[in-house]
């Protein structure tokens, strides 16, 4: 066992293990509730195909790059010939579905949640909450998770990843789950009413946000079926609630989950789903030991493999592991591969086996790959495509002592209603809030040194518009969903492109407009230029004059005024 533990830990930091490159197939298909998957994917049998993923389809191959439709009526798969483009591989003309395909449109976009195989009661609840059409990543992830695949879900911030994993879980556990059809047996007949899903998030705020999303769907009568286990909250109350309410889903931070579990008050051996939201953060150094314990224990029925000598895949077989983030460094891809059962990488427009992801990362699947890719390139790859395409990025140069005043002028110039301003040191947040308030701008600080109550009150005030500028640190950079947020400001530079991406992603959620402004000193401009290059997005230099945002197009020297 100790030997295995250390191997896994190394997977998080090293970059050298050779990865077998498989050619990957993306496909164009519309999921229907009747789509059938095989029980597992066999990665050793060549490229991934619809059939290898378990779709019962009868695609023919022709020598004219044509894909013929299944012959039977009411076929579960519809493939539009016009949407599938066959690409060349190594100079050899590709033929039929066995060769890599490139996707031109959004192939997974289902028109409704009912197409994805969710139970009617859940769809009713979704409609009641105003969710009518699934996002691309939901259309891709939901049927894949419903077919029991372990998955790594990567798509940009604000694209709906939370429901992408919550919906398939709620359709299998709890009061909204699918009823077995006549003549069909319950999938888990003898199962105790035990914890069936454990969702882990790196911060209390994100944990509570997920709990509220589940509660909304469960409705007031059943909301006790989900229990929060976040740090900072009263632990004995959480333990009492576990005992009294017998929830089927728990959502919490790693430390608190591990604590309650070690005290014997949380029984997760029979758990069917383990979700790691913001997986790259959870597998980082800070959480490593706790996460290791959670990964080792959740979903392992007692008595199954007590000696720990079996192959790790057999030991993981009891649970389905779902790993989620907008940013996926290759080290995380590799760690995820070791914790899941042949996981699939699910993105908005493709699903491929994780093991076929080249070391340059999961994002630039169509770009050139190099086995000697440097660490910083790997970071870059992880950050590209994690940003919503609608975001506009600017930077503004000022002196250190004028940063807060520049922030105030920026908020006015853009007429921003809901602003998140990031700083790196929590001690300096208070000062910035004081300066903003002194100039009549409603502001509040949010950071980890505040108590749970102060944190949730501030967040509530920000969400309901009482606070216009939330001055915060990295605590709020991940997962926080405030749809009204229309401006993100970096008062201090983020440490790298991944941190920039998560901060920036607090605005422009689900296709909304958003601006990101980095306020920096002259000596920091080179870092902004580097971020621009790494992220692959233009970050334009700007000024705030006469209540307007003036943008200089550096290469073309055009001055445009946005007002
Ligand atoms: N199908 C949908 N229709 C309408 N709104 C949706 C849908 N799916 C999700 N949303 C809403 O979109 C917002 C963003 O979703 P979510 O927080 O899951 O994004 P995310 O991809 O997890 O972002 P991040 O990477 O920042 O954590 C939420 O307010 C959520 O309620």
TrEMBL record:
<dbReference type="InterPro" id="IPR011545">
    <property type="entry name" value="DEAD/DEAH_box_helicase_dom"/>
</dbReference>
<dbReference type="InterPro" id="IPR001650">
    <property type="entry name" value="Helicase_C-like"/>
</dbReference>
<dbReference type="GO" id="GO:0005524">
    <property type="term" value="F:ATP binding"/>
</dbReference>
<dbReference type="InterPro" id="IPR027417">
    <property type="entry name" value="P-loop_NTPase"/>
</dbReference>
<feature type="domain" description="Helicase ATP-binding">
    <location>
        <begin position="142"/>
        <end position="346"/>
    </location>
</feature>
<dbReference type="GO" id="GO:0016787">
    <property type="term" value="F:hydrolase activity"/>
</dbReference>
<keyword id="KW-0067">ATP-binding</keyword>
<keyword id="KW-0547">Nucleotide-binding</keyword>
<dbReference type="InterPro" id="IPR014001">
    <property type="entry name" value="Helicase_ATP-bd"/>
</dbReference>
<keyword id="KW-0378">Hydrolase</keyword>
<dbReference type="Pfam" id="PF00271">
    <property type="entry name" value="Helicase_C"/>
</dbReference>
<feature type="domain" description="DEAD-box RNA helicase Q">
    <location>
        <begin position="111"/>
        <end position="139"/>
    </location>
</feature>
<protein>
    <recommendedName>
        <fullName>RNA helicase</fullName>
        <ecNumber>3.6.4.13</ecNumber>
    </recommendedName>
</protein>
<dbReference type="InterPro" id="IPR014014">
    <property type="entry name" value="RNA_helicase_DEAD_Q_motif"/>
</dbReference>
<dbReference type="InterPro" id="IPR044742">
    <property type="entry name" value="DEAD/DEAH_RhlB"/>
</dbReference>
<keyword id="KW-0347">Helicase</keyword>
<dbReference type="Pfam" id="PF00270">
    <property type="entry name" value="DEAD"/>
</dbReference>
<dbReference type="InterPro" id="IPR050547">
    <property type="entry name" value="DEAD_box_RNA_helicases"/>
</dbReference>
<feature type="short sequence motif" description="Q motif">
    <location>
        <begin position="111"/>
        <end position="139"/>
    </location>
</feature>
<dbReference type="GO" id="GO:0003723">
    <property type="term" value="F:RNA binding"/>
</dbReference>
<dbReference type="GO" id="GO:0003724">
    <property type="term" value="F:RNA helicase activity"/>
</dbReference>
<feature type="domain" description="Helicase C-terminal">
    <location>
        <begin position="406"/>
        <end position="550"/>
    </location>
</feature>
